[in-house]
Amino acid sequence: MRQIVVIACTLLATAALAQQNDPAAKTVLDKVSAKFKTLKTVQANYSLNVTNRMNQPAGKRTGKIFLKGQKYLITEKSMQIMSDGKQIWKYEPAANEVSVSAVDPNAQGITPQKLFTNFYDKDFLYKLNGKKAVAGKNCSEIEMTPTDKRKNFYKVYVYVDEAQALIVSSKVYENSGNVYEYTISGFKANAPLDDKMFAFDKSKYPGVEVIDQ
After folding, report:
1. If we measure between CA atoms, which residue out of 74, 85, 184 comes closest to residue 137?
2. Strands 97-102 and 209-212
3. Distance between CA atoms of 163 and 166, rounded to whole angstroms?
4. CA-CA 20 to 30 A from 10: which of 37, 45, 124, 213?
5. pLDDT tens per residue, range 172-193
6. How many Å apart are CA 99 and CA 92, to the nearest integer?
7. Does the structure show a pLDDT above 70 at 100?
8. Domain 2-212 -> CATH class
9. What is the distance of C-alpha 159 from the center of its chain?
10. Alpha-carbon span 69 to 119, nearest angstrom
11. How many CB atoms lie within 10 A of CB 140?
């Protein structure tokens, strides 16, 4: 589920955080949180660039994300991940294979919805580093360090376009040395989204192999 984690890191909004965090950063993130709480649906395009520990290109991907309440859909050329709030499907076109698992409300895993509301609540220490130009926008750079040192990443940077109260980019630094950089574009809010797009319809994929997890 790393795909969901990194994408949602880019789109996240957050609520109240621990007192030891930077109040200036909290003010910026609270504005993003307040905006996202008013949205009924979200659509966005994203691009991912990965570099390895030698600072060499290690992959590039693009995709789209759609959210509606507890439902979400993430699409790329090589896969789709969708959830209707009760089940999660991961479909791989090359293998014509879909894995199915139940949503566990008590699980500690990350979903887009958690990241849109309280991803940083008690999980991160953070500070505002200042301004930085990102994709032609004047953004605030917020540096985040996980409080749990067992995480497979040690640093996250998010870039907030304060004029729109949107996070437009993020960088996730893994312990392995890999860096995942996501950029969001084509953000669209409150467009009508059919509930059917968040559930896997087996009849549309002849011969698909279903794997229950």
Report:
1. 184
2. parallel
3. 8
4. 213
5. 899 999 999 988 889 999 999 9
6. 9
7. yes
8. mainly beta
9. 13
10. 16
11. 21
